[in-house]
Amino acid sequence: MCVNHATLTRFFRQQSVYVAIAVVVAAIFWAIGQQINPLTVLAYSLCIGNLLSLAISHFEFLYAGRQFPYDLLIFLGVLLVLTVPIYLITTTAVWFVAPPSPQTLSHLLMTGWRFPFLVTFVFGLASFLYHSTKQGLERRNVELQQSVERGAARLEMQEQELQRAREIQQSLLPRTIPQISGFEVAGAWLPALSVSGDYYDVLRLGSHRLGICIADVAGKGVSAALLMANVQAAVRAYANDTESPAHLCSKVNCLLHENIAVGKFVTFLYGILDASTHTFQYCSAGHPYPILVSVGSVKVPEQGGAVLGVFPDWKYEDSMIELVAGDRLLLFTDGISEASDAEGREFGETSIEAFARANATLSARELNSLLLAQVASLCGNQFQDDATLLVIAAN
């Protein structure tokens, strides 16, 4: 018969426990002044421990898995039934190996029951408590493991859903930015999380006009992304060749005010780039002011109105920027200007102005890419907020 190493280890560990109990019992008898043969105590301990362990393993199905106290009551009944045969077998073995005193077997069976009965009860109760605790812990471990696996599965599903949401959101942005004669428009969108509250769009309004907008929803994540989708749908519904930027802002503002959650708002800028007049007519609703680099100097037009979704009766007004060849107009969200390094130093609008002035000869696409690279380098690619940048280059 083949006995594996684990079985032998468990067997010898049990015997060491029985021997330890025998030593404790012998020490107790010695401490109270009772004369007892230590070998007798050892024999009782080994016999009762092994017999009781074997018997309990066969009858465990009667009480295992039941609720407390029913499991304990059934176990005590089983223990009472087992005590008598275990006592008879154990006492007979002890009489042959290490009798407590010279006496007949029948006399020992009649008079020596108190100690083995007590030891059997203590052994049995201790075994019950040990196995009940062990099974409870094992069951709890299984439940915890299952809970962890379910949690991991939910997280993976949520991650997949967020990834799909990101793909859907990206599909709402312009795949290719339409261009008009005499100008180049380039855009970039970098969400801080899987989905973003930033939005930009470039809409063709005719052969020589583009509708350009950029927006930033308060907050980040899914709630901001849902609100951003509403803004995008509203802009595309209202934008046309005859709608002025201020009028469009008013319409979107009223729509958002009726549906927006408490504490939410949107900063927004919408403008019309006209190649025939070389102008950018725009309306800003609480959005960071555009930065214009013209003939080596930097201008920051500071006309604007209230954020969208808060004041339903706000009267928005249009502003106009004339663009000549070589001008560069930068539109951005605060994820660009407020990007910071490990020590909390922000990139800032001053740095945007200085960078745009130093690189004013670059194309819109090059200026867009290099500015984003510099901001990403400052914050170690750890954007704390969604970042969006639009560059309009007059050629």
List the defining traits of the structure above.
single chain; 395 residues; alpha+beta; five-stranded antiparallel sheet; 10 strands; rod-shaped
Please explain how this structure is put together.
- The protein is an alpha+beta fold and 395 residues long.
- Helices cover 52% and strands 16% of the residues.
- The chain is built from ten helices and ten strands.
- The strands form two sheets. Strands 1-10-9-6-7 form a five-stranded antiparallel sheet.
- Strand 6 and strand 7 form a beta hairpin.
- Helix 6 packs across helix 7.
- The longest helix is centred in the middle third of the chain and has 59 residues.
- 32% of the residues are buried.
Question: What is the secondary structure topology, with strand pairs?
Answer:
Blueprint (H helix, E strand, L loop, with lengths): L4 H27 L6 H22 L10 H28 L7 H7 L2 H59 L10 E8 L7 E7 L4 E9 L3 H18 L6 H15 L6 E9 L4 E7 L5 E4 L2 E3 L19 E4 L5 E5 L1 H4 L10 H11 L5 H16 L7 E8 L1
Antiparallel strand pairs: 1-10, 2-3, 3-4, 4-5, 5-8, 6-7, 6-9, 9-10
Helix pairs in contact: 1-2, 2-3, 2-5, 3-5, 6-7
User: How helical, in percent, are the residues?
Assistant: 40-55%
Mean pLDDT: 87
Beta-strand percentage range: 15-25%
User: Over all CA atoms, what is the radius of gyration?
Assistant: 42 Å
Distance between the termini: 92 Å
Regions with little confidence, pLDDT below 50 for 5+ residues: none
Largest beta sheet, briefly? 5 strands, antiparallel
What is the count of β-strands?
A: 10
Global structural class: alpha+beta
Global geometry: rod-shaped
Lateral arrangement of strands in the main beta sheet: 1-10-9-6-7
